[in-house]
Amino acid sequence: MTRKTDFLIIGAGPFGISMSAYCKHNNIDHLIIGKTMDFWKSNMPKGMLLRSGVDWHLDPLNLHTIEKYLETENIDLDKSRPLSLNFYLDYVNWFTKQKGI
Lower CB density within 10 Å: C or N end of the chain? Predict the structure, then answer.
């Protein structure tokens, strides 16, 4: 299979997904290679807690933030701290749906 693209994103982790959202917003033809968050799903320890807070998120446009996810899903901020791996993966799933990635 051959496909031309203006921008190739290698890796579908947090930064690849964020870059894809930015490209999509700016109508940049792009291709993202990899399974969404596959490394995180396969290699991070079960029950892992992230050091990042809710102010760190994937959206370069500041629209579909973790705080917006908490609000949309009716999740109590205090009960979500510290962020767990499962919570973060749920946020990423929500984010990719919001952005159409």
Answer: N
Find, among 2, 99, 28, 32, the residue nearest to 59 by Cα: 99
| pTM exceeds 0.85 | yes
- Closest CA relative to residue 91, chosen from 60, 56, 61, 46: 56
What's the CA gap between 90 and 100, in Å, rounded? 15
Length of the chain equals 101
Tell me the pLDDT tens digit for each residue of 35-44. 999 999 999 9
User: In the structure encoding, which two tokens stand for residue 29, read together?
Assistant: 């033809």
